[in-house]
Amino acid sequence: MADVNRGNRPLSPHLTIYRPQLTSITSILTRITGNALLLPSLLIVWWLLAAATSAEAFAFANWALTSIFGKLIMLGSIWALWYHTLAGVRHLIWDNAVGLELEIAYKFGWIVIIGSIIMTGVTVIVL
Fold this sequence. Notes:
Blueprint: H1 14-17, H2 22-36, H3 38-53, H4 55-66, H5 68-95, H6 102-126
Helix pairs in contact: 2-5, 3-4, 4-5, 5-6
C-alpha cells in the first residue's frame, strides 16, 4: 500500500551526521580509480591506432600524450594503477577474513595510500 504520509516524515539524518572513515574513503577511491583508468587506456589505444594509421596522426597523438597535460594524465594513471592494485590486494586479504579488525583495517588503508604514492615515485624514477 502506498505511504500517504510521506511528506510528514523527517529526512534520514545519515548524511548530516555521518563522518567519513578511512575505510570508506579508500573503498570509494578504489572505485573511482578503477573507472578513471579508462581514460589513459583509451589514450594509449588512440596512440597505437594513430601509429598504425599515418605519420601525421601519430605526430598529433604523440604530441598530445607528451604535452604537459598528457604527462599529468599519465602520472595520475600510474598512481591510480598502483592505488587500485594495492587496494585490490587489500580486498583479497580481507576475502580470507584476515585483517578485518578496525585497527588493522586502518593500517591497511594507510599502507594502500602511502604505498601507492611511494610506488608511483619509484615507477617515475625507474621509467
